[in-house]
Amino acid sequence: MKKLDYYFKKAAKENFAIGQFNVSTLEALKAVVAASGVLNSPVIVGVSEGESRFLGLKQIVSLVKVFREETKFPIFLNLDHGKTFEYIKKAIDAGFDSCHFDGSQLKFEENIIISKQVVKYAKGKGVFIEGEIGFVKGSSTLLEKSPEINYEDLTDPLMAKEFINKTGIDRLAVNVGTFHGVNASGDALRINLQRLEEIRNAVGNFPLVLHGASGVLPEDIKKAINLGIRKINLNTELRLAFTNALKRAFDENPKEIIPYKYLPGAAQAVQKIVEEKINLFGSNNKI
Ligand code: G3H
Ligand code: ZN
Questions:
Q1: In contact, 250 and 155? CB cutoff 8 Å
Q2: What is the rounded CA–CA span in Å between residue 164 and residue 13?
Q3: Which of 24, 65, 83, 165 would you label with 96, given CA atoms 20 to 30 Å apart?
């Protein structure tokens, strides 16, 4: 089975991005696996600290492993927004393929120190590390109001270069104007493509990660891939699809109490979105 770095190299060579799809239930995980199989696409299953506590760190590792062994699809597991060395160590010890250390709210120097510590711990174990500079605001839910994104919030291109060189991370999450969550008004979110291009000019072909992809204009996603985005994180759109499908199911059939009868609709709704995004990111037929 090829490892995650094989797919990142392939993504750079063939100009596509790998989707990270966050899950917090077995049904959503099944949906991501099914989409990977339908479209022959590598996928990254993402779990935040909260999602991984809900699922269980060891439990989600085992589930992903079983699906990977059974299907032979390239399905990888990433801890999303790990906030401390201690939690990332737990995830690595549990068997994650990859971890995101989010030190974006720390002082730059402190972020470098902990990112280096994480990289050192992960390296001998074949685990890949995503670092981050430029805090991405919001949270993966329906927001009444979009967070205000100021010029100073965006990732500084020279700091990005220094951060990569000093930490030894495998990929870098950047703030290029997106936020976590979707605005209830439904306005499409735009990427600051100019800043992304400046970052790309500073860091060359180093793999960049886009967070907060829910609600982003598809055209901007395509342009961002052309500018070196190699991993795209999606959560809120999947949570919405799952929850809305369940609400509909209960509205339509309030007497239904059998979970295996009402849950598949929610999984199908998630799978539909994952398939749309895989096609948009261009990772279909890249196995
Ligand atoms: O780390 C997860 C992603 O950045 C999710 O962002 O909820 O806006 O899709 P999203
Ligand atoms: Zn994120």
A1: no
A2: 20
A3: 165
Q: Which domain holds residue 104?
A: 4-281
Give the E-state strand segments of 70-211 in sequence order: 75-82, 98-101, 128-133, 138-143, 171-174, 180-183, 208-210
Report the run of H or E that residue 18 belongs to, with start and end. strand 18-22
Measured between alpha carbons, how far is 29 from 46 in angstroms, rounded to an integer? Answer: 10
- How many Å lie between the centroid of ligand 2 and the Cα of residue 172? 12
Q: Which residues lie near ion ligand 2 (Cβ < 5 Å)?
A: 211, 233
Query: Model confidence over 153-183: pLDDT tens digits?
Result: 999 999 999 999 999 999 999 999 999 999 9
Cβ–ligand 1 contact at 98 (below 6 Å): no
Alpha-carbon 100 to chain mean position = 9
List the CATH number of the domain containing 166: 3.20.20.70
Does 243 reside within a domain?
yes
Q: 82-114 in b/e burial notation, b at 16+ Cβ within 10 A?
A: bbebebbbbbbebbbbbbbbbbbebeeeebbbb
Work out how many domains the chain is built from and give that number.
Answer: 1
The residue with tokens 């902990």 is 114
pTM of the model: 0.98
* In contact, 156 and 201? CB cutoff 8 Å: no
pLDDT at 186 over 90: no
- What does the angle CA 110 – CA 178 – CA 13 come to, to the nearest 5 degrees? 85
